[in-house]
Amino acid sequence: MQLFRKYLLIISFLFSFNSLFAQNDTENLVQILQTASFNNLLPYWGQQVEVNIIQQINQKQLNASVANEQLQAFFNKQNIVGFEKTAERKLGNTIYITGKLLSSQNKYSLTLLLEVTKKGIEILSVRIS
After folding, report:
1. Number of structural domains, the chain?
2. Which of 3, 7, 53, 83 is most open to solvent, judged by the fewest CB atoms within 10 Å of its CB?
3. What's the confidence (pLDDT) of residue 55?
4. In angstroms, rounded to a whole number, what is the distance separating the alpha carbons of residues 31 and 111?
5. Helix (H) / strand (E) containing 118
6. DSSP conformation letters of 60-117
7. Which of 102, 72, 71, 74 is nearest to 86 (CA)?
């Protein structure tokens, strides 16, 4: 019985460490969005990313560099000056982050769909409305 408890304790520690690393990665990602450091954002993109940006034709399944360029172009065109995270939810290996992109003229909503992988987190989808 004690052996079972030890195994259960070890397994619970492993799961808690996994979620801790994912949380650190998401905080890094939020900080990158707040500072608009697109060169630092590039490693977070998945192989194929779905990008939906307001006032643009929906472009499905872009590669990482094109998705990064699209997001950077939107930030530049709309004079985005910051990002404010409003919520983060984790369901299994999926993380949703929502927040507001701050501009001198408008506020936009940003939703990120992330996947936790062995390498860290990957952006699967970006939606700006």
Report:
1. 1
2. 3
3. 77
4. 15
5. none
6. EEE-HHHHHHHHHHHHHHTTEEEEEEEEEEEETTEEEEEEEEEESS-EEEEEEEEEEE
7. 102
Assign residue 84 the CATH number of its domain: 3.10.450.50
69-100 confidence digits (pLDDT tens) = 999 999 999 999 889 999 999 998 999 999 99
Task: Enumerate residue ranges in the chain where pLDDT < 70.
Answer: 1-23, 57-58
Cα 76 from Cα 13, distance rounded (Å):
43
Whole-model pTM: value is: 0.77
Whose tokens are 């936790």? That residue is 116
The pLDDT of residue 22: 47
Show the domain range for 104: 2-128
Q: Can you tell me the distance from the alpha carbon of 43 to that of 55, in angstroms, rounded to the nearest whole number?
A: 26
- The per-residue pLDDT for 8 is 58
